[in-house]
Amino acid sequence: MVVIVIIIVVVVVLACIVAGIYNNMVTLRNRIDNAWQNIDTQLQRRNDLIPNLVETVKGYATHEKGTLEAVVNARNAALSAQTPDAKMAADNVLTGALRQLFAVAEAYPDLKANANFTQLQDTLEDTENKVSYARQSYNDCVLNYNNAIQTFPGNIFAGIFQFRERQGFEAAEASRQAPQVKF
To answer: Residue 46's closest CA among 137, 128, 114?
Structure first.
């Protein structure tokens, strides 16, 4: 009788440990999904600001058509991206195009003095900061999740319950370089 009680206690304890590990992995996976939604929200906010910014710049920098088209095309690509990986890639292109646009704007004193442009630029910079913070939070969540599924004993249960490694957000090489403006 004592042996049966001990076996039942051991089975219950092991079941609780497995449930705890599983619940932790689910929680970490859900944090990643939530962090991605936060990034997506900030990217949408930025995408909503871009048409107003482009229209404001158009009035001052009419011969900068290529830069403006690059921003519009990058925004459209970002809006049509469906998967997180595609959104990350499109976001990197859009970030580079916006940097180029702001670099071009430096050459137009009247544009820099325009209150609408200044307000849009400030709002966009604030949004960029929020996007950066959201990316950092996302990457932290991915790190915690990947650590949980790759370390013992989580790696055993991750395989059983089919938890897969996630990729963090990486900036494209092009977006790490400062834009060059030539006149």
So the answer is: 128
Q: Are 88 and 170 in contact (CB under 8 A)?
A: yes
**What whole-number distance in Å separates Cα of residue 175 and Cα of residue 181?**
15
Count of Cβ atoms closer than 10 Å to residue 39 Cβ: 22
Structural contact between residues 144 and 28, judged by C-beta atoms closer than 8 angstroms: yes
For residue 126, give the amino acid letter.
D
pTM exceeding the 0.70 threshold for the entire prediction:
yes
Residue 181 has what pLDDT? 44
- Please state the length of the chain: 183
CA dihedral 56, 38, 179, 107 (to 10 degrees): 20
pLDDT at 62 over 90: no
Q: Contacts from 84-88 at CB under 8 Å and sequence distance 24+?
A: 84/36, 85/167, 87/40, 87/43, 88/169, 88/170
Indicate the burial class of 162 (C-beta count within 10 angstroms; 0-12, 13-18, 19 or more): exposed
